[in-house]
Amino acid sequence: MINHDTNLIAHLMRRAGFGAPHEELVRLTNMGYEATVEELLHPKDQPDLEMDVMNRYMGWRDLGYLAANQGYWTYRMVNSPRQLEEKICLFWHGIFCVGDSKCMAPHNIMLQLDQFRDHGFGSFETILNYLATNPAMLYYLDNQLSHKEAVNENWGRELLELFSMGVGMDDQPNYTEGDVKACAQAFTGWTIGNGLPRYPYGRYYNQFLYNQFDHINEPKTFLGETGDFNGEDVIRIISKQPATARFISRHLYNYFVADEPQVPAWQTIPPRDPELIRALEDEYFRSGYEIRSMLRVLFNSDSFKNARFAKVKSPAEVVCGTLRLVGDFTKPGPAIYDSALEIRYMGQDLLNPPTVEGWHTGKEWIDSGTLVERINYVTGEIGRVESPGVRYIINRLRAESEPISSDNLIDGCLEMLGGYELMPETRSLLLEHINLLGDLNDQNGSFEQSVGQILQLIVSTQEYQFS
Amino acid sequence: MTSTQKDPVLVILQLSGGNDFMNTIIPYTNPLYYDNRPNVRISEDQVMPLNDELGFNPNMPEFKSLYEQGKVAIIQGVGYPKPNLSHFRSMDIWHTCEPEKLADEGWVGRAIRDLDPNKDNVLTGVNFGRGMPRAMAAPGVPVASVGNLETYGVLTSIEVEQERAQALDIFSRMYSPAMGHGPVVDYLSQTGMDALHGADILATAPGKYSSTVEYGDSSMSQYMRNIAQVHIANLGTRILYTTAPYNSFDTHATQMTAHAGLCTNVSRTVNDFYEDLKEHNASDNVLLLVFTEFGRRVHDNGSGTDHGSGGAAFVIGDAVKGGLYGEYPSLEEDKQSEGNLQFNNDFRGLYATLLEDWMGLDSKPIVNGGFEKLDFISKS
Predict the structure, then answer these.
(1) I need a labelling partner for A40 at 20 to 30 A (CA). Which of A126, A296, B218, B328 fits?
(2) Residue ranges per domain, chain B?
């Protein structure tokens, strides 16, 4: 009964997207693994969401309410046919953090997300150039207040420490305090234009401005090179550093393959999978810093294929993955905003990461508070036996075999949820519980209640917390 | 260990983002202050003096009043060698007591382990807020983390009572530690069990509480109210922790308005908390530590201040010998450390004082060494 090809596709879709319902997994399995990877890597070949519908029901997103924009993004993550586009968008958002608590302009952050969608698969140098001219980012790290006479180092430091190179690798620092100063000087004059007033017509996007009269036109020494560098020069120099290739490779690994130690440890703790990291670094340079090429290497690697359930799900993955299974959020509706709030309650306030370092990932997503949020949310959603996704599962199991054994019921549920695997101890507890449920083959309605309960128990396991 | 109502309790309020010490405790008679702060300054006529050199930020009248009652120890110039100017790293250092190397075990987590080595009470340490601070993380140490005290519980989405009871039974057996599945699964198991136990007990706290004190609406105020509720409910909780909204004190820009609001909120909230405990005759065994990961640059940047070092911490409570501890770091240019205040007072000595002279623990293994203690706790 267990289809290993489908389980591998389920793994790919959990990582390169937010999971997929069983019907979709069957379609992709027939298409084949490598073809599915290519489809994911070229999201623009897929139709976008129906923007007319989005604008009709979610047109106020420009007004600048955080919760509205979180709902909008959650809707995209759940429903976009371009799954990897939303996943890579979340990837960059988790590194290039901009927080609404400071910016108070989520529409400017949404503009940044559009840039991640449009350019997030391209050259890292291009991505950094968009980042450095994004009004939300410039404001978040105060670069509009960095002047020739009074340099503000916030953006210059974080560009190096958190956005491109990291503090160090192989036990060596990657840059000095002098490099931070030079970097900050190179970005003097990179500022933003005033936004128009908020009312009466909603908020307007801020614009990037370069003020040449507020730029330090002097020779600077940055990472061993000397010249009258401007911001683009600094980005060009950063992009060719081996430290940058390492930093991006480790981030891709940590996000798509398996949980790594947190970023500050990277100076001293070597990569978990040095071979794959080396292959990604090589591809970074070979391809001219292209993220799409690195992802192709990553998804087709054995390391990736063997890394099933090697990651703790992020809150967005928990919520959006569950909604994709349940399948009744395919049209915009008010309940999507509640779903977006759940992501916040589990510790991932989208568009508002806690600090410029972003969210801690892996097992740090879990504490006794957030575990309670996860379990309560997922069991609540999966327990709705009237939802289309749960109905589909019940009907498939009913058609599968009759009479159905307890073992087949559990295996069937696991497969329909996306090829999950249980520890033997967990499995025997579920079998024990099924015996309490009475006759499984009673067709008078208790069958679907039984399936609903088993599904609820499966999603409240430790095993379900892993992707 | 069984706790009685009068076991010493430590409450920690973390001001995330790096609070500007120089505009909290202001050296208002020092001309160098005004030279260095042409824009981000509090004028002398606004400062609320506490002596003829230093004064409180004008938005902190409640703090000043507590200080005058002898309830506040101001720990000046607190920091650590070779200051790190990254929020993340500096907060990690404060959390782990490891300035030189990376560590993931927190000092509060270790203290909880020493207070309750047999894990008799999963609520020995409680965090309020989403996401546990690294300070409280230590392998095998249960810490409850409560986002919303009123609705805290497991599998609350299963409405039919009998079904929920069955599910909770299975849940408790599924999460009972299964060996040999690796550290992350072990961690998950432990977390699930702790959540289950803690939820049952914490659910009783709000019902036991009523108060005339009305806290503000900010999340920090509400979490401090939750801390008061849990302390007053007498659940044996010894260390309670919360964090003011992440990085809210990171005032690189438009600091004058932002910092005024922050000071107002901290001052009022701390005072409300103290009044609430007093009303319930529950203040005498509580000390409140207020700290931040670093101070800010001596010279302002035109509209705000950049990351610095050598900040201040506050310890507040009935058992405090009020006053100034440590020295106010010099503003002389040659005594600064690359434009930042030079620390003169290791934060691990502050922790050691709280751990030994208040909680009755051996501080050396918790803070990674011996550090000079301060004498701010009355021994009566």
Answers:
(1) A126
(2) 9-152+203-367
Residues 301-360 of chain A with CB under 8 A from chain B are 312, 344-345, 347, 354-357, 360
Helix locations, A59-176, DSSP H: 66-79, 83-95, 100-103, 106-119, 124-132, 135-140, 154-161
Span A258-305, pLDDT tens digits? 999 988 899 999 999 999 999 999 999 999 999 999 999 999 999 999
Query: What are the distances in angstroms from CA A76 to CA A14, A49, A83, A364?
Result: 16, 8, 9, 26
**Which residue in the block uniquely carries the two structure tokens 């918790």?**
B366
CA distance A370 to chain B (A): 7
> Which of B336, B326, B338, B328 shows the shortest CA–CA distance to B371?
B326
Is the pLDDT at A177 greater than 80? The verdict is yes
For residue B315 the two structure tokens come to 């310890």
- Domain B9-152+203-367 architecture: 3-Layer(aba) Sandwich (3.40)
Shortest CA gap B159–chain A (Å) = 9
Give the ranges where B70-182 is alpha helix by DSSP (H).
87-96, 107-115, 161-174
CB-based contact B247 A102, cutoff 8 Å:
yes
**What token pair was written down for A287?**
């391809």
Report the distance separating Cα B250 and Cα B255, nearest Å: 9
DSSP A200: T
Task: Kindly tell me the sign of the dihedral angle through the C-alpha atoms of B90, B95, B97, B98.
Answer: negative
- DSSP output for B181-219: S-HHHHHHHHHHHHHHHHHHHHTTTGGG---S----SSH
Q: Which residues of A touch B188 (CB under 8 A)?
A: 363, 366, 371, 462, 465
Q: Interior CA angle at A199 toward A194 and A202, to 5°?
A: 80
> Contacts of residue B246 in chain A, CB cutoff 8 Å?
99, 101, 354-355
Backbone angle region of A33, left / alpha / beta, with phi > 0 → left and psi within -120 to 50 → alpha: alpha
A363: closest CA of chain B, how far (Å): 7
Work out the widest C-alpha separation in chain A, in whole angstroms: 82
Asked if A368 and B86 come within 8 Å (Cβ–Cβ), the reply is no
CA nearest A269 in B: which residue?
B102
Give per-residue pLDDT as tens, B6-62: 899 999 999 999 999 999 999 999 999 999 999 999 999 999 999 999 999 999 999
Residue in A305, A307, A304, A284 with CA at minimum distance from that of residue A294: A284
Closest Cβ opposite residue B184 in set A177, A363, A380: A363
**Exposure pattern of A159-170 as b/e (b: 16+ CB <10 Å)?**
bbbbbbbbbbbe
Written as six digits, the tokens of B11 are: 């409450």
Contact of B349 with B372, CB cutoff 8 Å:
yes
CB-CB under 8 Å, A380 with B132: no
DSSP states of B276-300 as a string?
HHHHTT--TTEEEEEEES--B-SS-
Nearest CA among A177, A288, A175, A173 for reference residue A236: A288
Mutation target among B85, B174, B175, B176 for the A interface, most CBs of A within 10 A: B174
What are the domain boundaries of chain A? 1-41, 51-305, 315-382, 396-465
Distance from C-alpha of B211 to C-alpha of B213, rounded to nearest angstrom: 5
Q: Check whether the bond before A403 is cis (ω within 30° of 0).
A: yes
- A152 touching B, CB under 8 A? yes
* Distance (Å) from the alpha carbon of A146 to chain B's nearest alpha carbon: 8
| Chain A hits for B126, Cβ within 8 Å | none
What would the pLDDT profile of B173-218 be if each residue is shown by its tens digit?
999 876 667 888 888 998 898 888 888 899 889 998 999 999 999 9
* In the block, residue with structure tokens 């599924």: B174
* β-pair type (A225-227, B72-79): unpaired
Predicted pLDDT of residue A68: 85
